[in-house]
Structure formats: C-alpha cells, structure tokens
TrEMBL record:
Residues 22-78 form the Lipoyl-binding domain. It comes from Formivibrio citricus. This is Biotin-requiring enzyme. InterPro entries: Biotin_lipoyl, Single_hybrid_motif. It comes from the Bacteria. Gene3D superfamilies: 2.40.50.100.
Length: 171
C-alpha cells in the first residue's frame, strides 16, 4: 500500500513589516523532520526561521534569496505523510441537512481570471490539503472567499450525495 502524501503550502508567518529571504535552508526533495528550519527571514534586522510543521519532503521553493516577502506569502510546498484517520464517524441516521434538491446550485470558486488567483483563507487551504480537495471546486462563502466553512460545507455536500448514490445502488 502506498503512503498517502498531501501537499502543504508553507507561508511566511505574521510579520511586523516587510521581510527578505536570507537563506533557503533545505533543498527540494530533501526529507525533513518536524521543526527543521526551511527558510531564514530577515525582519527589521532580526533573523527568523520558518520551520517544517511536520515531517515530510520539501517540495519546491517559490521564493529566492534576497526576495522581499510579506505576512502570508507562499514560500514553498511540502509533501507531508497523512496519518490514518476517520474523518466522520459512522452515523446511524441521516444528518438533518436540507435536501440537496432544495439547496441553491453551487457556484464555482472565486477566481480572478485576469491574474488566475483564488481567494482562500489559510485555515481553509490547510483543511483542504488534509482532505485532498481541489480548492477550485469549493464554492466560496458569501464574501467570495473560500474559508473553513466553505470547505466543510463542500465536503458535507459530497458525503450526502455519496450516501444517496450508495443507497440507490444497494437498494
């Protein structure tokens, strides 16, 4: 059985002002343990390390040395081994959600076609990565942002449709 990996986005932490990339401390493809320093940032004359959140493989860097970055900017990707877990306990009865046919049709995610960007909250990106979801398929919330609630609602919708399909096939 192959070990499942999920791509995680490693971003700059909350910073008090602009920072520059001082050094890339790992190489793409390198296997690292949790808390291994990956990037050295220089913030107002102080050095700050960005470390691996968990053990995994360093993916690709999207920044270079001496490049300016801000809070939340994407620095690199990592492939992190997923731990076996049950996302939702088995339920004896159908959850009390509105029937799918009465829900408004889902809109595609908020994508700015001119520059190809999708507005996603960092927590939603992390949750979607853990669940191996394509964020472009997740309808945004009322504010046009894909947040944790939007990801949860999308997963719930998938599970309800799957359960209905399973009942059709089994019955």
């Amino acid at each position: 059985m192959n070990t499942p990996y999920t791509t995680h986005l490693i971003c700059a932490p909350q910073l008090n002002g602009a920072a520059t990339i001082g050094a890339l401390l790992a190489t793409p493809g390198e296997s690292v343990v949790a808390d291994t320093p990956l990037v050295l940032l220089h913030v107002d004359g102080q050095a700050q390390e960005v470390c691996a959140p968990e053990a995994g493989l360093v993916g690709s860097f999207v920044v270079e040395r001496d490049e300016a970055v801000s809070s939340g900017d994407l620095l690199l990707t990592m492939e992190i081994e997923e731990k076996a877990m049950q996302l939702f306990p088995l339920l004896d009865e159908e959850p009390g959600f509105a029937p799918a046919c009465t829900l408004p049709e889902a809109k595609p995610a908020a994508v700015d076609r001119q520059n190809g960007t999708l507005t996603v909250a960092p927590e939603a990106a992390s949750l979607a990565a853990r669940l191996a979801l394509d964020l472009a398929e997740v309808p945004p919330g009322p504010d046009g942002v894909v947040d944790e609630d939007a990801v949860t609602d999308h997963v719930r919708d998938i599970l309800i449709r799957w359960r209905k399909l399973k009942r059709l096939v089994v019955d």
